[in-house]
Design a protein that fits this description.
By secondary structure, this protein is α/β, with parallel strands linked by helices. It folds into 2 domains: 51 residues, RecR Domain 1 (Helicase, Ruva Protein, domain 3), CATH 1.10.8.420; 115 residues, Dna Topoisomerase Vi A Subunit, Chain: A, domain 2. 43% of the residues lie in helices and 13% in strands. It is built from 8 helices and 6 strands; from the N terminus they run αααββαβαβαβαβα. The chain has a 4-stranded parallel β-sheet with strand order 4-3-5-6. Strand 1 and strand 2 form a beta hairpin. The longest helix has 17 residues. The radius of gyration is 21 Å and the shape is globular. The termini are far apart.
Length: 201
């Protein structure tokens, strides 16, 4: 016998499909939605439908954008260095790089990484668009900014091999000890990469 009405159970189940949301968090979110005034609940639902209907991928960099004309704001900006492409796995990674306020190039979003265990191959992510951008010329550097894990490293290595024939500089984000942390808490792999990536002062 179910604890809640079927419509509430369905709402909870929908929340559990979101990344990082377990059953208890899904229940809290569902209860919160039910406690909202009707107008706010309708506004919440409308925001989801509006985003779903109007947000799509930029035809050039594959990042999220609105509007049907041309490319996204980052790709069309004359303030960005169009000769440097930073390759990231997901659109949210663009925000992480932008927060640094140090990068002034453009992006390419893969929408995933290579993962044989999860049956994700080269044709399942947006690699071909990147190769096409580089092959047209005018690109001086491609920065691989995928996560420093097995899948991110494999993706970076695979793409760097594909870009070799174009004589473009391919770099990888440096790894190391996080700012403000202690050496005693760093794992062996992080310490090894920090030593390998050391720079002269």
């Amino acid at each position: 016998m179910p604890f809640f009405p079927s419509s509430l159970e369905n709402l909870i189940d929908k929340f559990t499909t979101l990344p990082g949301i377990g059953k208890k968090t899904a229940q809290r979110l569902a209860f919160h939605i039910l406690s909202l005034p009707e107008g706010e609940a309708e506004s919440f639902a409308a925001a989801i439908l509006e985003a779903r209907g109007s947000v799509h991928n930029c035809p050039k960099c594959q990042n999220f954008m609105e509007g049907e004309a041309g490319v996204c704001d980052l790709c069309s900006s004359d303030r960005r260095d169009q000769s440097i492409i930073c390759v990231v796995a997901e659109p949210r990674d663009v925000l992480s790089i932008e927060r640094s306020r140090e990068y002034n190039g453009v992006y390419h979003v893969l929408h995933g990484v290579l993962s044989p265990m999860n049956h994700v191959g080269p044709d399942d992510i947006r690699i071909s668009g990147l190769i096409k951008r580089v092959s047209t010329g005018g690109i001086s550097e491609v920065i691989m900014a995928t996560n420093p894990d097995t899948e991110g490293d494999a993706t970076a290595m695979y793409i760097s091999r594909l870009l070799k024939p174009f004589n473009v500089k391919v770099t990888r984000l440096a790894y190391g000890i996080p700012v403000g942390s202690n050496l005693e808490y760093a794992d062996d792999a992080t310490l090894l990469r920090a030593l390998q990536g050391r720079r002269e002062m």
